From TrEMBL:
It comes from the Eukaryota. Keywords: Disulfide bond, Glycoprotein, Immunoglobulin domain, Membrane, Repeat, Signal, Transmembrane, Transmembrane helix. Disulfide bonds join C8-C69, C39-C49, C100-C164, C113-C174, C144-C154, C205-C269, C218-C279, C249-C259. This is Deleted in malignant brain tumors 1 protein-like. Residues 620-686 are annotated as: Disordered. GO terms for cellular component: membrane. It holds the Pfam family ig. Residues 286-377, 384-469 form the Ig-like domain. PROSITE patterns: IG_LIKE, SRCR_1, SRCR_2.
Length: 713
């Protein structure tokens, strides 16, 4: 049980409950180092008890020893290199808390090391050397004599009575193997090498001390790799006996006493030849802190990092800052526990994930693990773009204005601005469209936009975009123009509208319903000033009571409307050509009269020729009948009166012949006279008729020319 008591104390597990034998917890697979162990129960380490020597045994694996401890865990060390170094914390009232470093010294550390079951106290670090604790400070002004079995047995102000800050947490560095220690060091895992033999601590001579010897010591102490093997009492001269001289290790031994040496106490050295070591220790992971207030930064700004370690060896430490894990950014060397790295005038390429580590340069380089990572973001917002389908919008219509930006920092918002007008829209994309509904003149002006986003709780705003000008216009429908003549006298000719002179007519301008009211302008090619009429039911009529040649020309309409005290004009209509022509009734009457006279004359001529022909026919018939009757009488009287006839023939024939000739001549003269008179009259009538027809045709031609003139209007 005494052996178990020492083990439980060394483990910091309270009192020994039992000491099981015969591989109660199973057989070990390694070497058996101790046999015939005999402890008095007061030792702080099992190796301080009497035993046959390291590795000297005659046991089998079935004889492995074990312990049952009470499990007293009222003290612990935190954030150290091993179980025997770190910030001291005790358990009280159900909570773990720290010890204040007021009056903290090696006697206090000795009690803690003994209570932990570790070796000798190496150092008693102050000022939160192993980092600040997060719990309550249970003890302050602790004063131990060094012989107490528990830190709570030492003098103190009482549990929870303290006036300390978190940066005053106390710590300890204890040796792991109680048979070896490092003395006179400012930190754990470096110092003058001392071994415990025959109940006394003594030194090792530096003949011929080298890195292989230091490597064994560092391994035996649980301090990692050997960085240096200082000689000539680098850590000061020891006051005890020199136990070993001419130590020669291969480097793979588990204890310095296993190396070749002249024997315990056999030496020819001076105190100025004490050997020392600097070990890497179980290098703790450093912590990286960004001293700048935010991880999101603008180009040109600066960032400052601090890489810190919880323990430090008395050798130069090299700190390295990395960007994106593998790319070394900067290396600095310092004989301290922390290093500050400053990055000035940041650019986009400085963006990334930063870590740090540290290393000690010895026979070989031993590096710590990399620290926590801190990512900084360089937020460079370019000028956004603004666009619209057109620079103008029709009154009452809608217009879309699009803002966009090329950036990886999406999820922000765009702001559209014009004077005092501001509208904001959030979006998860790179662009957003602002819609102006029912545009009016208040929407006119120059617009620009900006992009805002939040990165790492910091707001960033882009530069202003370029500007676009938006104008609101009133687009009026094209009016219509037409002409009416309520009294008639209107027709369409080849060249356009024809209106008879003297007739009234109206020209009407109209437009589709769009705005109430308005004014119509009627422009005339023959006047420099347009006529004006207010619009009634979207139209206006211009009345002309009597058409005359001054009205002949081109007419067009323009519609004007006033919106918000602004005048807007429609596009001018196509030209309406108006031609004024003469009234045609007198010409038509003259033509009709001439035609009637011509017809009457033609009828008279026809009647005359008919009568003349009839007269000729009658004369011819009368002559023939008279000749036939004469012949018949001659035939009848020929026989009876033949003689008489013959006698009187000459006389009769002469008389008849004279009578006939006279009558015939008279008739012939009368007929010829009548014929000549009729012929002269007929020729006179024909001449008059032709002159009348010719005059009519001239008038008719004159009418056609006038009609052609009007047709060209």
């Amino acid at each position: 049980m005494k052996d178990a008591e020492v083990v439980c104390r060394q483990l910091g597990c309270g009192k020994a409950v039992s000491a099981p034998e015969k591989a109660y917890f199973g057989e070990g697979s390694g070497k058996t180092w101790l046999d015939d162990v005999g402890c008095s129960g007061n030792e702080s380490s099992i190796t301080q008890c009497s035993h046959s020597g390291f590795g000297i045994e005659d046991c089998s694996a079935s004889e492995d020893a074990g312990v049952f401890c009470s499990g007293d865990t009222r003290i612990r060390v935190v954030n150290g290199d091993n179980s025997c170094s770190g910030r001291v914390e005790i358990y009280h009232n159900g909570t773990w808390g720290t010890i204040c470093d007021n009056s903290w010294d090696m006697n206090d550390a000795e009690v803690v090391c003994r209570q932990l079951g570790c070796g000798k106290a190496v150092s008693a670090p102050e000022k939160a050397y192993f980092g600040q604790g997060s719990g309550k400070t249970w003890l302050d002004d602790v004063g131990c004599s060094g012989n107490e079995s528990s830190i709570t047995q030492c003098k103190h102000n009482g549990f929870g009575i303290e006036d300390c800050g978190a940066n005053q947490d106390a710590g300890v560095v204890c040796s792991v193997d109680s048979s070896i220690q490092l003395a006179n060091s400012s930190g754990y895992c470096s110092g003058r090498v001392e071994i415990y033999h025959n109940g006394t601590w003594g030194t090792i001579c530096d003949d011929p001390w080298d890195m292989n010897d230091a490597e064994v010591v560092c391994r035996q102490l649980g301090c990692g790799k050997a960085l240096r093997a200082p000689q000539e009492a680098y850590f000061g001269q020891g006051s005890g006996k020199t136990w070993l001289d001419d130590v020669k290790c291969c480097g793979n031994e588990s204890s310095i006493t296993q190396c070749s040496h002249r024997g315990f106490g056999i030496e020819d050295c001076k105190a100025s030849e004490d050997a020392g070591v600097v070990c890497s220790g179980n290098m703790k992971t450093p912590s990286l802190v960004l001293l700048t207030t935010n991880t999101a930064l603008l180009p040109g700004e600066s960032a400052e990092f601090r890489c810190a370690i919880t323990s430090h060896r008395p050798v130069t430490a090299n700190f390295r800052l990395y960007r994106n894990q593998d790319q070394e950014s900067e290396t600095k060397t310092a004989d301290q526990k922390m290093m500050t790295f400053s990055l000035s005038s940041l650019v986009s390429s400085d963006q990334g994930s930063y870590t740090c580590d540290y290393y000690y340069q010895g026979a070989l380089t031993v590096s710590s693990p990399k620290s926590n990572a801190i990512t900084i973001t360089i937020v460079s917002l370019v000028r956004p773009q603004i666009s619209a389908p057109a620079g103008e919008v029709t009154w009452g219509q809608s217009l879309g204005i699009t803002c966009s930006i090329s950036t990886q920092h999406t999820g922000g918002s765009f702001t559209l601005k014009k004077g005092s007008f501001t509208e904001m829209k959030s979006t998860s994309e790179n662009s957003v469209t602002f819609t102006i509904h029912h545009a009016d003149f208040s929407h006119e002006g120059s617009y620009y936009c900006q992009y805002q986003t939040t990165v790492s709780n910091r707001k960033f705003t882009s530069p202003q975009s370029n500007t676009i000008s938006v104008s609101v216009v009133v687009r009026l429908h094209l009016p219509r123009i037409n002409c009416t003549a309520p009294e008639g006298g209107l027709s369409w000719g080849p060249s356009g509208l024809e209106i008879t002179k003297g007739y009234s007519f109206s020209i009407t301008c109209s437009t589709q319903p769009q705005f109430p009211g308005g004014v119509f302008y009627l422009s005339f090619s023959g006047s420099n000033s347009p006529m004006t009429q207010p619009a009634t039911n979207h139209s206006a009529s211009f009345y002309f009571p009597a058409a005359n040649y001054s009205h002949q020309g081109n007419y067009s309409c323009v519609y004007r409307v006033d919106v918000s005290s602004r005048h807007f004009y429609s596009t001018e209509t196509e030209k309406l050509t108006v031609t004024i022509r003469e009234f045609m009734v007198p010409f038509i009457a003259a033509g009709v009269t001439g035609g009637v006279v011509f017809l009457l004359f033609f009828g008279l001529v026809c009647i005359f020729w008919a009568r003349r022909k009839q007269t000729n026919t009658r004369q011819t018939t009368w002559k023939c009948t008279r000749r036939q009757s004469k012949d018949k009488d001659e035939d009848e009287d020929q026989d009876d009166y033949e003689n008489v006839e013959m006698e009187d023939q000459d006389d009769f024939e002469d008389e008849d012949q004279d009578d006939y000739e006279n009558v015939e001549m008279e008739d012939q003269d009368d007929y010829e006279n009548v014929e000549i008179e009729d012929q002269a009259d007929c020729e006179d009538d024909d001449q008059d008729y032709y002159e009348i027809v010719e005059d009519y045709m001239e008038e008719l031609d004159t009418g056609l020319e006038v009609e052609n003139i009007y047709g060209n209007c």
